[in-house]
Amino acid sequence: xxxxxxxxxxxxxxxxxxxxxxxxxxxxxxxxxxxxxxxxxxxxxxxxxxxxxxxxxxxxxxxxxxxxxxxxxxxxxxxxxxxxxxxxxxxxxxxxxxxxxxxxxxxxxxxxxxxxxxxxxxxxxxxxxxxxxxxxxxxxxxxxxxxxxxxxxxxxxxxxxxxxxxxxxxxxxxxxxxxxxxxxxxxxxxxxxxxxxxxxxxxxxxxxxxxxxxxxxxxxxxxxxxxxxxxxxxxxxxxxxxxxxxxxxxxxxxxxxxxxxxxxxxxxxxxxxxxxxxxxxxxxxxxxxxxxxxxxxxxxxxxxxxxxxxxxxxxxxxxxxxxxxxxxxxxxxxxxxxxxxxxxxxxxxxxxxxxxxxxxxxxxxxxxxxxxxxxxxxxxxxxxxxxxxxxxxxxxxxxxxxxxxxxxxxxxxxxxxxxxxxxxx
Length: 425
Fold this sequence. Notes:
By secondary structure, the protein is of the alpha/beta class.
């Protein structure tokens, strides 16, 4: 990115608008797992989950162009596109999840999910983790960990300690599920005592922003049982783990083995076109529609629906889930070999094409080292970023057309970057 563009961007969008890397990348073109900058340099994209089936996938591009050239209207007109898509989407779900409202972003979907739960339960109390992110609306920002809302967190929100590999809740990996559930039960008791009651527990079933800890199937069972006993619903935020990113399962909640009442979708749903959804059971949607007047002008417009449907078809036609499973396992094996060569890699973990390595030096989270490696890899033509409570986890979450050859390049570059940055420390 040129200095002139940086200046113009800050003037137009604000001084604190975020960019990745010490030297931001001015991207001008993408294809598959590759991005090109304004100088023509090629980068391996190991981070962007939005282009789920690859940057500028021809089938998705064609679907958008063809529908835009035919018709695009707001959602109070009848059009078969959105219904066709939703019926195809519902076929990927179990647990009676067969109704939805389409919106434009994951933030909107999560905001809507909270209102679904309030409508059904008549309660307002919410439970999330203490190191999460669910979007940007006023309601969901109450759940986010990065910045405290003006005036502090609302009294109807309770945050419980997030699970972790190296610092597990309760002190041990084996007892972490029970310890997590105990904190949820405490939150329930506090919400009931304060008069808010419990409307929902909202979690990412991969605990992605928490650092994607390694959790056994059934980890949430005790916590979920407690929430349901208190009359609350379970919201699974699938914006990051959904659509087969974690491997053979379509959804993160399948991998963890629980049945959500509401599922929220976003980012990769239409390969980058702004579309999202809150999916639920018909009776929950009915309760919401009786309690709230809601209309979304662009959610589920024909162009968005065409993009989403094409993306869904590509996932099936090109074996995207199967590729995530096999390539992800291969990449993890390479990272484990790398960990044997670099003592700063304290843990390697992941599932499918969502994996990473946690960096620790002198028994402390290596936040500065992680930042240095990320920027060194950017300089070497590989884009990734960090995650976790201390931003000391190298987070890899590429388009799901990522190959074994791409994984080789990623890990070779990471090896060289770790060596280079540590030599300068």
